[in-house]
Amino acid sequence: MNKLLLLFISVVFFSPTYCQEDSTIETYSMLRKIEEVEIRQYKPLLFASYHSNSRLSDKNFYFRVLADYIFGANEKEEKIAMTSPVVIRLFNKKEMLFRMPAKYTKNNVPKPNNKNIEFVSTNYNQKAVIKYSGYSNEKRESKKIEELKIILDENNIKYNNEFELFVYDPPYQFFNRRNEISVTIISEY
Fold this sequence. Notes:
Radius of gyration: 17 Å
Structural class: alpha+beta
Oligomer: single chain
CATH topology: Multidrug-efflux Transporter 1 Regulator Bmrr, Chain A
Distance between the termini: 39 Å
Number of helices: 3
Number of strands: 9
């Protein structure tokens, strides 16, 4: 990772404008565990989303665009609490999503200055999730996707094949990192 970006992220995460007050709110409940896979029920959530056709895999750029929005690049110049995990939709041009704190809806969330940031609402849904630690990369993500597929297939659990990466920790956290690969279950479990 670029040292300047790492410095930027470190300053942002340690600055008073960064707040994880809403990160402690449970967004899901675990329904069942099958080997290393958790089957979870997720509540409806609202996300700020960004992806671009011109920078298909530049996660650092995507992060900067969304971070800029939550640090005040919006119509109200309002600072929005940073929540975790950051979601990367591996199936959709590596679209990145930041979950909006619970107090926001599509009606009251500040309008972004960047017209390419969109808002995505989800309904109640069930996901199968497999955890892993360390820094994520395409090789580790592919390995975990395959592990997840094998367990779901062995248990006759149908899924939509649209895998997401959940990143819980800032890049300067070297130990006890938490990442997850998830996929939506098609028929409720």
